[in-house]
Amino acid sequence: MKIVFPADRNELEYKEHGGEEWIYVLSGRLRLMLGGETTVLEPGDAAYFNGLLPHRWDVLGEEDVEMLMVGCRAGADSGIPRRLHPLTEGHRGHENP
Fold this sequence. Notes:
CATH superfamily: Jelly Rolls
Shape: globular
Number of strands: 8
Number of domains: 1
Strand order of the largest sheet: 1-7-2-5
Number of helices: 0
CATH topology: Jelly Rolls
CATH architecture: Sandwich
Strand content: over 45%
Oligomer: single chain
Largest sheet: 4 strands, antiparallel
Order of helices and strands: EEEEEEEE
CATH class: Mainly Beta
């Protein structure tokens, strides 16, 4: 699905839920806080993570963020391993917490 976060969005609460998420940023700059790590995603960047990791989003700058999001369930019958996989050091925009 396509999601638009307004430029003034500032999420204060972390979310946690079952399932996997994949996002792809179309426009704007998005700060993703995921399991104690932070990264900045820009147009053309993607992230894939387990929803069990505490996560939240902030819009950076004065431009709305448009992104595509795909979610699916995880568990024994889904074929998706239930593992946590935070951001990796090699990702462009990675910031130490």
